[in-house]
Design goal:
Length: about 350
């Protein structure tokens, strides 16, 4: 228990910051939808010019730009004149390390609509997204190709940090063929294949999930060694791998659906094969070892996807259900915040 003295002005300020947090997210989302970081680019631009180019009310544009400056995305060099700060640079679309799609996706009205029903999801445990839209998240994306492309790009941008540290954190060299299940645009498998020139790959996802894969594989110069297969992991997964990889896939689903995906992997994996889930592993209780974003992601799974983040015990149980045995949990170097949760057939 904390005593009253712990309730400082700083703690009070933190509560106010938390409550205003969704407004900050809207500023970031609105900025990328107007493409303000691209329009400002390497120059100093005036609010009047940007209002004209974006077709907005001038004073309102100034206010948006000033909020961006206060949030350290821009600098206001003199009244009404703005240039990008480091944060704003990361929202340009022309940078390889850009986060603009992540910002656009996680502030998209479709995702936010479910968050408005968090209270109801907590009461019932039901996925708000399915109730709002009458379909699950991935089926909904099939009806919105532009949002699906944004989602794929957001996943790729979110995966870059993990992809940069995964190849050196695990001995992929002892396998012949790695199959990335739900591998999206191939950001992770590309990084692994680049580091292990003798390794072959199979990238597996839905047709929508794979829509941007060709380009990613080509830029990484691994197209020749990576087959691309479209399908549904609730029906089957490709044969032919001795390592099956699932990054940020199992957390999208409840235990029953997750066990079904793993069960399909169990049917095709050889006895000497390995399966690797790449996800956060939550401690049994909140101990400060994981950033708050992991727990927000967990709630995002509740409201938008119907999945959840899991503890080591949860993974052990899930693996057991699907005919696997957990063999190791290897945390990736910070700040990735992800672990390699390895299993072998039991
Ligand atoms: C959260 S994303 C993760 C993508 C990628 N592994 C990453 O970490 O960046 C989940 C992926 O699962 C794919 N997916 C969803 N339902 C699927 C299904 N029924 N069969 C195959 N892939 C599916 C999605 O298209 C998406 O690429």
């Amino acid at each position: 228990m904390v005593d009253d003295q712990a309730v400082t002005a700083e703690v009070r300020g933190n509560i106010v910051r938390l409550v205003f947090g969704h407004m900050a997210a809207q500023v970031v989302g609105t900025a990328v939808r107007f493409r303000l970081p691209d329009l400002i680019g390497d120059r100093e631009r005036t609010a009047a010019e940007l209002a004209e180019e974006c077709g907005t009310q001038p004073q309102a544009m100034t206010r948006l730009l000033r909020a961006m400056a206060a949030l350290e995305l821009l600098a206001e060099n003199r009244p009404g004149h703005f240039s990008l700060a480091a944060g704003g640079m990361l929202l340009r679309t022309d940078r390889p390390d850009s986060l603009h799609a992540l910002a656009g996706m996680f502030t998209d009205p479709a995702m936010l609509q479910s968050w408005q029903r968090l209270e109801s999801s907590v009461r019932t445990g039901e996925t708000a997204f399915d109730q709002e839209f009458g379909t699950d998240f991935f089926d909904y994306l099939k009806t919105r190709p532009e949002l699906s492309a944004l989602f794929n790009a957001a996943m790729s941008q979110g995966a870059q940090l993990t992809a940069s540290v995964t190849p050196a954190s695990y001995d992929f060299g002892r396998f012949d063929t790695v199959v990335d299940i739900g591998g999206g645009d191939g950001t992770l498998i590309s990084a692994i294949l680049r580091e292990y020139p003798a390794l072959n790959g199979i990238l597996f996802d839905t047709a929508e999930g794979l829509a941007q894969a060709e380009q990613t594989l080509r830029s990484a110069e691994v197209t020749e060694r990576c087959a691309v297969r479209a399908g549904d992991f609730f029906a089957s997964v490709p044969e032919g791998g001795d390592l099956y990889l699932l990054k940020s896939v199992i957390h999208d689903w409840d235990d029953e659906r997750a066990a079904s995906i793993l069960g399909h992997c169990r049917r095709v994996i050889p006895e000497h094969g390995r399966l690797l889930i790449v996800e956060p592993v939550l401690p049994e209780a909140v101990d400060g070892s994981n950033p708050a974003i992991m727990y927000l992601s967990d709630l995002n799974m509740l409201v938008n996807l119907g999945g959840r983040e899991r503890t080591r015990g949860d993974f052990e149980e899930l693996y057991r259900r699907a005919g696997f045995e957990l063999t190791s949990v290897t945390p990736l170097p910070p700040p990735a915040g992800f672990c390699l949760v390895e299993a072998k057939p039991s």
